[in-house]
Write a structure and sequence with these properties.
The chain is of the alpha+beta class. The protein has two domains: 63 residues; 72 residues, no CATH class. The chain is 49% helix and 17% strand. The strands form three sheets. It has a two-stranded parallel ribbon with strand order 1-6. A two-stranded antiparallel sheet has the order 2-3. It has a two-stranded antiparallel ribbon with strand order 4-5. Helix 1 runs antiparallel to helix 2.
Length: 155
């Protein structure tokens, strides 16, 4: 945006200067066409410069993007960083509750507390309550947690 604005100002200044000079010399068609050709050449140069600059920026960006390396059996797999691993929930905490839904699994809070050290940071709006016949049980809804960036993984 900045470059286009500056190019517009320069082109306007050249046009006004060319027109006023040609009027002072009793302008003829050659002078006007010469001024327009100069403006077109400058505009093409600015366009080419911007296009090359964009290509260079894309090349630099692609060179910084790392492609994943294949995992070899003799190389140990490094653990995920803590800020990423925080969003991985243990799959063995998934269980079905007959009174909630026999076909819909939930994440049990006691299992999570035992096997997942970031239980306190889980979003409370994903916690559902249901009556098991004696008292209200609570568990976490996996779809809601997925919506908040969590995922259920094998650990």
């Amino acid at each position: 945006m900045h470059r286009k604005f500056i190019a517009l100002i320069v082109a306007t200044a050249i046009t006004i200067t060319g027109v006023s000079v040609s009027q002072a010399r009793a302008a003829d068609a050659k002078d006007i066409l010469g001024g327009l050709a100069a403006i077109a050449i400058i505009g093409a140069g600015v366009h080419y410069y911007n296009k090359e600059k964009d290509k260079d920026r894309d090349r630099r960006h692609r060179s910084h993007v790392q492609t994943p390396k294949p995992v070899h059996p003799h190389h140990p797999v490094r653990p995920l960083p803590h800020h990423v691993a925080k969003y991985d929930l243990p799959k063995h905490c998934l269980r079905t509750y007959e009174r909630y839904s026999p076909h819909h699994a939930l994440l049990g809070p006691r299992c999570l507390k035992k096997h997942y050290k970031y239980t306190n940071s889980l979003p409370q709006e994903c916690k559902v309550g249901f009556w098991n016949g004696k008292k209200v049980k609570r568990a976490y809804e996996p779809a809601c947690l997925r919506h908040h960036g969590y995922r259920v993984v094998y650990q």
